[in-house]
Amino acid sequence: MLRIPVLVFNQELNPDESQMITQAMTLIIDPVFWRSVDGTTGGPLDSYLLILPHWLGLPFDFIRARLVGLGCILLSVWFFYRSAEVWFGQRVARLALLPPLLLLSITQNPDFVHYSSEHLPVALLGALYLAVAVIQRSEKPTYGWVFLAGLLAGTVPFAKLQGVPMAFVAGLFILITIGFRKNLTGRQKGSRLLTLVAGSVFFPLFVVMLTLLNGVFDDFITFYIVGNFQYGTGGDFNWLKNLAVLSHLVQRLPEFYLLVGLPVLLGLVMLPAWLKSHFKAEADWEPGAFVIVLLAATVLAVTRTGSGYPHHMLFAVIPCALVGSWMLATCLRYLPTAGPNHLIRSSVAVITLLSFTLPFLFKLVKGESFNRYVQGSRELVRSDVAKFILQYARPGEPLVVWGWMCRYYVEAQMPQGVNENHSIRSAYDHPLKHIYLTRYVGDLTRSFPPVFVDAVGYSFWLNDRQRYAHEHFPALHTFIQTHYRFAGEIDKTRIYVRADRFKPARQLAQK
Q1: What tens digit of pLDDT does each residue of 56-90 get?
Q2: What does the alpha-carbon distance between residue 92 and residue 78 come to, in Å, rounded to a whole number?
Q3: Do 116 and 69 form a contact (C-beta atoms < 8 A)?
């Protein structure tokens, strides 16, 4: 209910939204990923998922993308609840559900409410964590759950490579769990381990087969695997240095303290109980070890590139909540069943009520709106640039935008005519720049769009025309100069029209 205002706010909140919506529009026309679309840091599954609303007859816009994203968030929360219930029981699961539910409900941070490349992998990882819980709580893990866990772990990289460390930790602990099951024979352990491996390689082999059949295997390796390992730090990264980004991320997401605060407080309260249980060998360390290592892997994944995008913290919501549920379960285990226990339950109820109501009371006192998105429009708003583009082109025809301004594709409802619909990897200096730029010009030649837009000067990141305008890249400049005519400039965005479509009477004065 608290998400409804942003669901009907049909405007871009983050450039990534427009990037993936445009990729989905393009895949409808040419469904082969890495031939028509390069998701850069996002995997192919993120864009394919956005085709689902289209199959239901809905348009490609921000509302539909956020509905899909919210569906992924709901799934991840449900998977978390079921995992906590399997590990620690329903009572702990209900209490542990409150912090992540509160965070994901009241947050209005654009990085948490727009559709991003984190939504699908977070849902897949949530299902994987549930599989780990079921396997750890089974004396004889079934082949079905083991295969499903492997399948989920093998699928995560094709939603986002950033989720691989968490998937690896889950797979590692499943191996450990099976290996230490005393009631399984060596043969039974071996067959289950083979089942896990079979599940984990099933989807990657399927993707490799498709790329080979469609002739894009080399592109898959170059632009998804190698390109993403180069991303952010040119392949020479320092994780210890990048860890400093974590405090910056949390500062930009004050709502995250709702999730982190509970484990910290519980950790202080139950430290004596931990020490006591450790010496008595009574602690339930199987899930505890998993959630702690999982959280460490998540921190490393979130901070790997050092880019400091707040939406990366979506990966940390469920691992933090799992740590909190384990701490809560351990704390309640060593509390007496009488007085103090009732006091804790009452305190949790009061704190939860205050957590939900205080943010709204503060806004009421200040005279602010309860939700920053209530003034949004459900109709897709077109910028002046998009309106002018549509004077020379039609929805459904290819469009190419140099720079990082993917919302023009969405506003004009035109698919991308190049793999990389934001051109930072073709413009910025890095080891693969020449390969990206060569592909960009090749794609431009192939699609030959009616309109080419140079958004450098108004786009995200790419604003320095002295360095990044298209004329500073000889092959690209020669192609545009030969086949296109300058039609005008709007909002520091230059628009070029293909010579056969150009009509001087429509030429714009600079705005």
Answers
A1: 999 999 999 999 999 999 999 999 999 999 999 99
A2: 14
A3: yes
CB neighbour class for 138 (10 Å; exposed up to 12, middle 13-18, buried from 19): middle
* DSSP one-letter string for 157-211: GGTBGGGHHHHHHHHHHHHHHHHT-TTS-HHHHHHHHHHHHHHHHHHHHHHHHHH
The confidence band for 331, taking pLDDT boundaries of 50, 70 and 90, is confident
Q: Give me the torsion for CA of 418, 422, 425, 429, rounded to 10°.
A: 120
Which pTM value belongs to this model?
A: 0.90
**How many whole angstroms separate alpha carbon 266 and alpha carbon 510?**
61
**Identity of the amino acid at 73:** I
Q: What is the DSSP string of 230-293?
A: HTTTTT---HHHHTHHHHHHHHH-GGGHHHHHHHHHHHHHTHHHHHHHHHHT---HHHHHHHHH
pLDDT tens digit sequence for 109-168: 888 999 999 999 999 999 999 999 999 999 899 999 999 999 999 999 999 999 999 999
Q: Write out the H or E segment, with its range, that includes residue 452.
A: strand 451-454
CA distances from 378 to 9, 64, 187, 406, 414 (A): 6, 11, 59, 19, 20
Give CA–CA dist 403/318, Å, rounded. 35
Count of all residues that appear for the chain in the document: 511
